[in-house]
Write a structure and sequence with these properties.
The complex is a heterodimer of chains A (184) and B (345).
Chain A: H1 3-13, E1 16-22, H2 29-36, E2 50-57, E3 60-67, H3 71-74, E4 86-92, H4 99-111, E5 119-125, H5 135-141, E6 152-156, H6 165-180
Parallel strand pairs in A: 1-3, 1-4, 4-5, 5-6
Antiparallel strand pairs in A: 2-3
Chain B: H1 2-47, H2 54-73, H3 80-104, H4 110-134, H5 136-159, H6 161-164, H7 168-175, E1 181-188, E2 191-194, H8 196-199, E3 203-210, E4 213-216, E5 222-229, E6 232-235, E7 238-248, E8 251-262, E9 265-273, E10 277-280, E11 283-289, H9 297-304, E12 316-318, E13 331-333
Parallel strand pairs in B: 1-3, 2-4, 3-5, 4-6, 5-7, 6-8, 7-8, 8-9, 8-10, 9-11, 10-12, 11-13
Helix pairs in contact in B: 2-3, 2-4, 3-4
Classes of the chains: A alpha/beta (184), B alpha/beta (345).
Chain lengths: 184, 345
């Protein structure tokens, strides 16, 4: 067994998490993912299908899945539920017209058996826009306080400026880590 | 002679001595080499784990493969419930086998890896085939049901609110702060305008309009068009997205960052889009480059932050047409000769 194999083995044992990012179309999922990864966000187009990024953060290996939010794609969300550790629900805080849609989709999602153990992070995105609702308003509109089935947290953020993205993901990591890595 | 003899003897004995020494040394070296080989062998054995032996892998893989094949072959002729259960089981087993293969990648040679992968692929293929054959009804029912479910939820969101509250749009606008989101709604046969002071950096909503001509001079943050019929709507540069929902027989023109078009038919869009335009559940939508102009357009472009030089008006993604290679039948570009050039109201 050479050094390379030993290194490879160690890598495999590294702490890995699978995060699934969902939300209505135009919520900013891809922008959050790219911003978090330090990529250019000016040319993002509506996601046809999905994006995957694997990135290292605080010694964790994060597999982030960003699935398109168009109505025609939502029925495919179910294909990505398996072994999800954390669910990131992205909300366009300026999109008042579709908050009810947003609430509806989220509550359907939380009934899903395969997401039962997952931690929920709600990103109240687009706080940089003048018309954005506050995170308290979104919390109320989406009736987050009624969620008893999952650990959840709402964070206001802006994918364009990058504000609060880190603190959101950090909270998510802490919560997941406390749950699944207690053994070691 | 004596001395010579002696010398000869001496040299002989020295030679003997030397030869013995060399042999000795060689033997020692040989022994050391053998020891070394032994030691390395032991070391290797102590480090390798039973699970990482090739034989272990291939026998386990074979066994699992046979097991799955048995499961699958047992599906023909069995009744629905049994088939269901078997397929479920086979799916789980295939996933486990894939995982086992992934875990074993480290110590497999390229050849074995390929073999195993192709075996897995074959299993997956036959699983899909059997599933298709055994449960065709379920498949179609499933599709139809999701569509119906979608429609139902659509209807629910669109039409249920009127029974309990005022129309959805109105109700939500009122509940959200109406100062932030505004525009025109429920109008017929009107000529409507807004100035940049009114709409700059705000979310504009136009809903339930028919036979109207609308001119929005300025740069809104987003633009929502809902339930529009036979209208001509022109708007200055929109900083982020334009949403179009249920729009018919209309002509639209605006620059924007993204365009998201839903449930729209027979509509022309004169578009400047810096990212992408998408259509979903649309027919007869046609596109041409943005050509409207008004005195403060340049200024509004600066307010919006849009790049005036990058226009992807003819790169449209159709979410209802995922076949690669064949162009979507749901949208076209307007031939140059047929494009509208005079925008006077």
């Amino acid at each position: 067994m050479g050094l390379l194999t030993i290194l490879k083995k160690m890598k495999q044992k590294e702490r890995e998490m699978r995060l699934l990012m969902l939300g209505l179309d135009n919520a900013g999922k891809t922008t959050i993912l790219k911003k978090f990864n330090g990529e250019d966000i000016s040319t993002i187009s509506p996601t046809l299908g999905f994006n995957i990024q694997t990135l290292e953060h605080r010694g964790f290996k994060l597999n982030m899945w960003d699935v398109g939010g168009q109505k025609s794609l939502r029925s495919y969300w179910r294909n990505y539920f398996e072994s999800t550790d954390g669910l990131v629900w992205v909300v366009d805080s300026a999109d008042r017209l579709r908050l009810q849609d947003c609430k509806q989709e989220l509550s359907t999602l939380l009934l899903e058996e395969r997401l039962a153990g997952a931690t929920l992070l709600v990103f109240a995105n687009k706080q940089d826009l003048p018309g954005a609702l506050s995170k308290e308003a979104i919390r109320e509109e989406l009736a987050l306080d009624d969620i008893k089935s999952h650990h959840w947290c709402i964070i206001d953020c802006s994918a364009v400026t990058g504000e609060n993205l880190l603190s959101g993901v950090d909270w998510l990591l802490d919560d997941i880590a406390a749950r699944i890595f207690t053994a070691d | 002679m004596e001395p010579a003899h002696e010398f000869g003897e001496e040299t002989d004995s020295a030679g003997d001595n030397g030869a013995a020494k060399v042999q000795d040394r060689l033997q020692k070296r040989n022994q050391a080499r053998i020891d070394d080989v032994e030691r390395r062998k032991e070391e290797k054995e102590s480090q390798s784990v039973a699970e990482e032996k090739l034989e272990y892998f291939s026998s386990t893989f074979k066994r699992e493969q046979m097991c799955i094949e048995d499961l699958l072959s047992g599906c023909s002729g069995a009744d629905q419930g049994v088939v269901n259960q078997r397929l479920e089981e086979a799916t789980i087993k295939i996933v486990q086998l894939q995982k086992f293969l992934n875990d074993s990648v480290l110590f497999l040679t390229q050849y074995e890896l390929r073999q195993a992968q192709s075996a897995l692929q074959k299993l997956q293929g036959s699983l899909a085939e059997i599933r298709e054959k055994a449960l065709p009804k379920k498949k179609f029912a499933f599709r139809a049901r999701t569509k119906v479910a979608d429609k139902v939820s659509e209807q629910e969101t669109d039409s249920a609110p009127p029974y309990c509250t005022p129309p959805a749009d109105l109700g939500e606008v009122v509940r959200g702060s109406s100062s932030k989101l505004f525009g025109f709604s429920n109008m017929d046969n009107q000529y409507l305008t807004k100035t940049s002071e009114e709409i700059n950096k705000r979310d504009v909503l136009l809903s339930h309009l028919s036979n109207c001509k609308v001119r929005l001079y300025g740069s809104p943050s987003t633009l929502h068009l809902k339930h529009i019929d036979k209208c001509e709507i022109l708007c200055g540069p929109v900083a982020t997205s334009v949403f179009i929902d249920d729009c018919r027989n209309s002509t639209l023109s605006f620059p924007c960052q993204q365009l998201r078009t839903h449930s729209t038919t027979d509509t022309q869009v004169y578009l400047h889009v810096t990212s992408r335009a998408i259509i979903e559940d649309c027919h007869g939508v046609s596109f041409a480059p943005f050509s409207w102009s008004y005195p403060t357009l340049e200024e509004d472009f600066n307010v919006s932050g849009l790049n005036k030089d990058s226009n992807n008006w003819n790169q449209v993604d159709d979410f209802y047409w995922l076949a690669a290679g064949t162009p979507s039948p749901n949208w076209t570009t307007i031939p140059e000769a047929d494009r509208k050039t005079n925008w006077d109201p």
